[in-house]
Amino acid sequence: VQLVESGGGLVQPGGSLRLSCAASGFTFSSAAMSWYRQAPGKERELVARISSVGGGRVYADSVKGRFTISRDNAKKTVYLQMNSLKPEDTAVYYCNAPRYELWGQGIQVTVSS
Predict the structure, then answer these.
(1) What is the rounded distance in angstroms from the CA atom of residue 112 to the CA atom of residue 68?
(2) Cα separations (Å) of 11 from 14, 16, 46, 49, 88?
């Protein structure tokens, strides 16, 4: 049972990244999924959430209009498309399956020139 994130890295302000989270070991298609992030010295915060069937999307105010969460149940993968990135988006991003209290290992996103 695990979540594995990929797609992070270093990007310039205004750039884009797409994070992926591959799930295994549980019934992905019945699980709502979330992305969280934690910046140095700050608490972990919810970035976005999506229902099991792809609706009910919720976003943090700080990312609305810039980030999009989506999922492919056939591939057991949830995505976070991040556009117009800002330095304040720099953080470790975590994939989460709340129903199973499951977290990924986290992946670093750094926005810097």
Answers:
(1) 21
(2) 8, 7, 21, 23, 12
